[in-house]
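Thread amino acids onto this structure.
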């Protein structure tokens, strides 16, 4: 067992919370260390609230002062004051009293950090992300059988069983002949979704705990973490986390990188990339990855969000209601026409309306696209963040809420997403290859005076039923839901006018 000291409890400490690749976070950390003598300085991961970072947390016992994006000189003064035995409260943006041994970020009474519940996100910004002593499970806790009983629904477009019970894939992998393997799919080229990156930056060992638990459950001796090739700092950070905990886990994942392309993040396309295929395209199913995955082996493919939920279920099994349709919480990145994006955590009793409290919008709210680039367009955020509620509302489940202002044109917003689908699909299936082109062309025709609402809707139904790839299946969703909400805008465009005065033929 590796000897770890951790940062929980103990003497006064200054935490500097920032993204892995944040130069300013490095400068703040250096300034704090230069001024420190007895005070400990630790660089933690991001909290998910980029507006506040680098966030400096000055803690002594059960009292923490929060300082949003301070200057290096201010940080040096804070450390000096903490050295004298006093938490510098006078200039703090927030002061929180808490249990001295808490392993979760204390929450101020107001501000973006108070949005939702920080359960899975709890360690982010508070623990040393590379030290298992702060937040890793013990070997006796790492029994995925209890997590299987919790009924966790898989999360994210990169998950091979997204919106289905994760344990179903584990059982298939256990029952299939061959040597199982576990894959963490983090290759997301679309910057709208930041939850997986936040988890791997702020609490990577929580994800690794989930990986090890699932690996033990299915009998896997191999695991892979699949990241985007452009995120070199995150790759290095994850490798450090694996090295820090490899002696304490049953499996130490390999870290590999895939191309910075949207299609490369689809689960079976990710397997093709890892096998060295010349073309990036999804596989036909069945068989599922759990039956025939990486190099033909039974493969469990989850996102970090799913693995982190598994770890939470193992640590606090009584906190999950196994009878609920979607046990656990949902991580949601709030982006769009906002000053700074934020990642928050919502439980099933909260609605998406809460996401507006985490950010400051640029302009007045007009609509939201919920679920990523191919999410659904809506004006109503009174929707619970569960898979069933989101699907019933015609929205996506990929943990993204784009808040769009009244400067946005609904037709152009839908059209750009259709064009993206026509450019990014793999070309393997006809609905994905030709359907996305037809969809884009029908939207171009609106600017030329022809709005064929029934034809667009029928094309969308055919694509959703018959596409082999996620892009072909989901590309019609932003278009059809935008028509449901803003059909008068579509008709006015066909008459040659954009109500917003911001749009011209540009698809």
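Threaded sequence (507 positions):
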């Amino acid at each position: 067992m590796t000897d770890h000291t951790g940062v929980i409890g103990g003497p006064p400490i200054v935490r500097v919370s920032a993204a892995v690749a944040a130069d300013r976070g490095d400068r703040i950390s250096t300034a704090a260390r230069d001024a420190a003598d007895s005070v400990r300085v630790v660089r933690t991961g991001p909290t998910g609230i980029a507006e506040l970072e680098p966030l400096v947390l000055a803690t002594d016992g059960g009292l923490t002062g929060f300082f949003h994006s301070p200057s290096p000189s201010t940080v040096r003064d804070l450390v000096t004051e903490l050295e004298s035995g006093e938490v510098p409260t006078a200039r703090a943006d927030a002061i929180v009293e808490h249990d001295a041994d808490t392993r979760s970020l204390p929450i101020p009474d107001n501000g973006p950090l108070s949005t939702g519940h920080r359960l899975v996100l709890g360690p982010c910004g508070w623990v040393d992300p590379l030290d298992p002593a702060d937040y890793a499970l013990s070997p006796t806790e790492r029994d995925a059988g209890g997590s299987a009983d919790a009924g966790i629904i898989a999360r994210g477009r990169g998950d091979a069983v997204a919106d289905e019970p994760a344990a179903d894939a584990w059982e298939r992998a256990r029952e299939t002949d061959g040597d199982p393997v576990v894959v963490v799919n983090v290759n997301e080229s679309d910057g709208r979704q930041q939850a997986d990156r936040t988890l791997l930056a702020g609490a990577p060992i929580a994800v690794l705990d989930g990986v090890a638990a699932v690996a033990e459950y299915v009998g896997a001796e191999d695991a892979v973490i699949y990241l985007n090739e452009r995120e070199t700092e995150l790759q290095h950070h994850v490798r450090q986390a694996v090295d820090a905990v490899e002696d304490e886990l049953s499996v130490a994942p390999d870290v590999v990188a895939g191309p910075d392309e949207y299609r490369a993040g689809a689960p079976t396309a990710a397997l093709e990339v890892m096998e060295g295929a010349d073309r990036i395209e999804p596989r036909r199913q069945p068989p599922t990855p759990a039956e025939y995955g990486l190099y033909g082996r039974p493969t469990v493919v989850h996102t970090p969000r799913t693995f982190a939920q598994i770890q939470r279920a193992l640590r606090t099994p009584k906190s999950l209601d196994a009878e609920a349709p979607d046990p656990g919480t949902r991580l949601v990145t709030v982006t769009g026409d906002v000053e700074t994006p934020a990642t928050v955590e919502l439980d099933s009793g909260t609605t998406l309306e809460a996401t507006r409290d985490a950010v400051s919008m640029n302009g007045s709210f007009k609509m939201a696209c919920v679920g990523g680039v191919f999410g659904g367009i809506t004006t109503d955020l009174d929707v619970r963040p569960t898979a069933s509620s989101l699907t019933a509302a015609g929205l996506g489940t990929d943990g993204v809420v784009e808040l769009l202002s009244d400067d946005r044109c609904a037709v152009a917003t839908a059209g750009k997403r259709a064009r993206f689908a026509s450019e990014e699909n793999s070309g393997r299936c006809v609905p994905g290859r030709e359907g996305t082109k037809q969809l884009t062309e029908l939207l171009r025709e609106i600017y030329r005076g022809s709005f064929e609402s029934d034809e667009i809707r029928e094309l969308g139904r055919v694509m959703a039923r018959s596409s082999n790839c996620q892009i072909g299946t989901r590309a019609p969703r932003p278009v059809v839901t935008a028509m449901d909400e803003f059909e008068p805008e579509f008709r006015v465009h066909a008459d040659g006018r954009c109500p917003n005065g911001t749009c011209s033929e540009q698809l």
